[in-house]
Design brief:
It contains 26 helices and 16 strands. The protein is of the alpha+beta class and about 600 residues long. The longest helix is centred in the last third of the chain and has 32 residues.
Amino acid sequence: MIPREVIEEIVRRSDIEQTIGSYVTLKRAGSNMVGLCPFHSEKSPSFTVFPGTDSFYCFGCGAGGDVITFIMKAENIDYVAALELLAKRCGVAIPQDNSSEYRKGPTRERIREMNVAAARFFHNYLLNAPDAAQARGYFASRKLTGATIKHFYLGYAPNDFGKLTNYLKTKGFTEEEMITGFLCGKSSKNGAAYDYFRNRVIFPIVDTSKNIVGFGGRVMDDSKPKYLNTSDTPAFKKSHNLFALNYAKDYCADELILCEGYMDVIALHQAGIQNAVATLGTAITEDHARIIAKYTKKVIVSYDSDEAGVNAANKAMRILAKVGVEVRILKMKGAKDPDEFIKKFGAAAFRNLVGESRTGFEFKLEAITAKYNLEDTSQKVRASAEIVGIIADYHSGVERELYIARAAEVTKIPQAALREDVERIRKARIREQQKEVTREAHASIRSLGDKVNPDAAQNSRVAFAEETVLGLMLIFPEYRDRIASEDIRLEENDFLTSLGKRAFSAIMRLHGSEGGFAFALLGEEFTPDEIGRIRSWEIKRRALSENGTGVFAGAINVLHEERMKREKPADSISLADALAQKRRELEEARKKRFEEN
């Protein structure tokens, strides 16, 4: 067995665009890449690479999966051979002796348990300790209410080298666990353990499954560093978490507000604006963008108004655009950040400001006009080509007209000419979409002879419910958590198809493992064709706007109802069937007596 850490590193280093691009000629299509499928003959491209989810899928033949699956199919090799090939290409060494290559330390669950104990210590110390008066005064100066402090479980790390360490020892945690969990360090002089967070107000970091995975600590004066955050641990990765997403995920279907700091987010939530999150002491990453794209299709970037904030906003827009998220930029006047703005002008004024946020189009337009000399005819043509391509992406006719007018004003090109080019591009895209729909329809018809999941033909209603449930489980870890905790009752036998049963079992088994669920590990027990089918369930759900708990619960109800029908006891047959059965029994008895006589 190749260690999962190695598999994940191989996938991380194997850029899917570059890898597939060495086999297939790919062209940009919005945030994705398209090309002619290498696994079946076609004249129009139906093969799509989704960089935002590190996956691919062919809408013509159903091939799909991740970079490992692609190599398995392209090179006609098995899972391990594909990993070895990719490892060689990206420079990852696969260890021969797993036991000596990887750390055998505290588990993710153990770190989470310790974080709960630490959070309780910090919170209670803030509320009750005499030497936490400065911390209480700090939160009071930031206008935080007691309810807000409780809601975010804020705390205080005392100005002492050993209080938290000693407390955690009384709870049964070892120094090794505390060091691994980034709660204590070890002196290089005498080897003594010491508290990592000292004399700082504490912000617990909670994931979407309500686990405390780390902490942020802020000084209460001008000393440096201003913020201290948990480094990566078995339970926590900065690039995989956003502060307050555990709350915001229930309020951000329409739009999400992305802030720079903890206090900005807390101030917004306290003001009733609960769709705000922040990155954890780092700039936004592609991992953050993929997480955000699960919950919303529009982000309002609300960074500080200084030069660094503007640069960070530009970076956020680029990264979020890759995963198909619309970005608008908030410009604040009279305040440097949301926290200060709300204190000065109130929540209503901030909501109005959000409504006046600038579109991503304005930023793109500025970038294009800065790149080309519009006084030069050839450069002006290239600039207009980029601009109309961007405008054609917008679904709303009103938006397109507004942006055409704005582009005409900037480029001095007549609106009619820009509009004609925009519509030409849109018509070409519509024709391609119609071809894609036709291909999907043919693929659906072919499913009657489905070799990947033949059981699906037994009951299309149940098959669709299975795909809905499993697709949502792949996208949202909180659904898997609720199943694992038995908050939602769902088990393997609730599924009708063999593939559905196996997929459910594998997903939940990986979710409960030490490293958690990773799509790349499914290749160990599913064929490339099965991986393609599983990936298609996720892709279809991502394309839909409604993926809430109601959809999930509804699909599970279908599975439960159909299982009850399948397992209906024999004594619950209808009266007519019972009478018919009784007549058959009497007739057989009569024939038997006749033969005996």
